[in-house]
Amino acid sequence: MSELINNREIRRNVLKELISELHDGASVEDVKAKFQETFGDVSATEISEVEQALIQDGMPVSEVQRLCDVHASVFKGSIAQIHAPRDSSEVPGHPVQILKAENRGLERLIHASLLPDLARWVEAGDPTALPALIRDLGQLARIDLHYSKKENVLFPLLEKHGITAPPKVMWGVDDEIRGLLKDARRAVDDEPAKLVKAKVELAVDRIQEMIFKEENILLPMLLEKLTEAEWRGVARSGAEIGYCLIDKVPVWAEPAVEASATAVTDGAVVESGAGSKHPPVFGSLIMPTGSLHPREIVALFNTLPFDITFVDKDDSVKYFSAGKERIFARTPEIIGRKVANCHPPASVHVVEQIVEDFRTGRKDHEDFWIRMGPKFVYIRYFAVRNDAGEFLGTLEVTQDIGPITKLEGEKRLRG
């Protein structure tokens, strides 16, 4: 046991040294040999555990993220043998098979359309290739659906199994890729063709590296940890988010599930209040200003013209509404997830500061607004307190206010 502990300590110190060298400007090739010497015979899971320990020791996620390219460079050609995927990943419709199919769709788009159209426009000077290139980049932007499934469905499940560092690191790289794609698309309109070519190729390289990391590090880790019940949840939540560059999604013949002996009741009266003109239906929640049956509460919240998410006083996601057109993805897997893990690493410190300001009473609300394609999204955070002023949690309200900003004149109920 002591030898195992010592080995892990040695590996942790080696990673610290490598990260420091990368921070100081060393290249992947400069540190590759040392990484391979220390980690060439261990699994990706163990490396992830060492990285997780570094983050828990206080090392910023952005620093650990520097190792991603080293992983890919060292493990190509060997890690597939370390982590051979289970047969279930090849079953038609299984979530892992779907994610791999999306990756194949990304590769086809890149190699059959995007790069040839880029070459026709930049090298051959063919002006007819420009609309095709713009269309290709628009299609490639659908990668956000693929990454959203990772960040809102798969990462929460890994966190529940105690694996927190790899999701944070990978989410940071996902966001880098999103930024590179946006930058490449803007460059098409404003910058010289050669610079556009460099930016598109950089984004493509990062996407291809991420495909390798997903299929040789992330997916084997998920297959090792997730239960059949969790995979069923992944399949449902993935379908709600949508699919990236695949048209015909095969139906997964899920394993048979034994019927549950637990009955779900309609609820019970949990709070008493002032009398009402209309007596409550059995199982209603009686409140000072009326009563609502659980079915009415669910329908009411899901009918609101905005999305709401509630994070409790312990910083865990407790509830989200399920309207027909959500602005940000929310899946059942995030229930119980720490709010810091629900945001990309670059914005976690902002979220944590907002919650801390609410908790201490320094603020009661905070507002943000962003452009998301045709949507003008208004994001509001509110401190939720009881009558005694005790902090109960944070409410997030998100709404597309684009149509509201265009209102003019008046429209009255009466003529």
Average pLDDT confidence is 83
Low-confidence stretches: 1-5, 77-86, 258-276
Q: What's the number of structural domains?
A: 4
Could you describe the largest sheet, including whether it forms a barrel?
5 strands, antiparallel
Structural class: alpha+beta
Question: From the 3D coordinates, which CATH architecture of the largest domain would you assign?
Answer: Up-down Bundle
Quantity of strands, as a count: 7
CATH topology of the largest domain: Four Helix Bundle (Hemerythrin (Met), subunit A)
Dominant shape: globular
Q: C-alpha Rg, in Å?
A: 25 Å
Helix coverage percent = 40-55%
Beta fraction of the residues? 5-15%
Strand order of the largest sheet: 4-3-7-6-5
CATH class of the largest domain: Mainly Alpha
What is the CATH homology-level superfamily of the largest domain? nmb1532 protein domain like
First-last Cα distance:
83 Å
H/E series: HHHHHHHHHHHHEEHEEHEEEH
Task: Please give the count of helices.
Answer: 15
What can you tell me about this protein's structure?
- The structure is a single chain.
- With 415 residues, the protein is α+β, with helices and mostly antiparallel strands.
- Helix content is 54%, strand content 11%.
- It has a 5-stranded antiparallel β-sheet with strand order 4-3-7-6-5. Strands 1-2 form a two-stranded antiparallel ribbon.
- α2 crosses α5, α8 runs antiparallel to α10 and α9 (143-160) runs antiparallel to α10 (165-190).
- The longest helix has 33 residues, at 193-225.
